[in-house]
Every structure is written in structure tokens, then in C-alpha cells.
Design brief:
Largest sheet: none
Distance between the termini: 124 Å
Number of domains: 2
Length: 103
């Protein structure tokens, strides 16, 4: 018996059971995986993962080196700034001493 809209409950259950059985039959008919092919795929996956890990590690090392270089450059700039401040002070003191001598 068919309902007004769509199939009846029994028909839906029977269709679902038939679809499930068909999927199981297809799965059982599938040939088993070749161990050599499985091993080759696993080796390839391991190689890809290792290469990706090495690439990430190289990127981290490069970033750390860049940060260290930037820190060293900043420290050098600060030191140069301090040196120039000392030079400015020495020049100022020399001008002051020369002015005192003239008086």
C-alpha cells in the first residue's frame, strides 16, 4: 500500500535493507589489499610526513635566526645611540670648556 506522499514505512525499511545488503555484497566482493602496495603507500606517507616535519623545523630555525639577528641589530643600534650620546656630551663639554677659557 502506498501512502499519499511517498512510500510507506515498510517500503522504506525494505529499501534501506536492500541498499545495506548491496553495499555489504560490494564490500565483500572487493579483492584484499596487496601487502606490497600497502607497505609502499605507508612508506610514501612516512616520507611525506618526515619531509613536512623537516620543513617546519627549518622554518622555525630560520625564524629564530631572524629574530636573533633583529635583536642583535636593535642592541647595536642602542649601543650606537649611547655612543653618539657620549660623543655629543663630550663635544658639548669641550665647547663649554672653550667658552670658559675665553672669558
Amino acid at each position: 500500500m502506498k501512502a499519499y506522499k511517498g512510500p510507506a514505512y515498510e517500503e522504506r525499511v525494505a529499501a534501506a535493507a536492500a541498499a545495506k545488503q548491496k553495499a555489504l555484497d560490494r564490500l565483500r566482493a572487493k579483492p584484499p589489499a596487496d601487502p606490497a602496495a600497502v607497505a609502499a603507500r605507508q612508506a610514501a606517507r612516512l616520507a611525506r610526513e618526515t619531509a613536512a616535519a623537516e620543513k617546519r623545523e627549518a622554518a622555525r630555525a630560520a625564524k629564530a635566526q631572524e629574530e636573533a639577528d633583529q635583536a642583535a641589530a636593535a642592541e647595536a643600534a642602542i649601543k650606537a645611540s649611547e655612543t653618539s650620546e657620549a660623543d655629543k656630551k663630550a663635544a658639548r663639554d669641550a665647547r663649554y670648556a672653550a667658552r670658559r677659557k675665553r672669558k
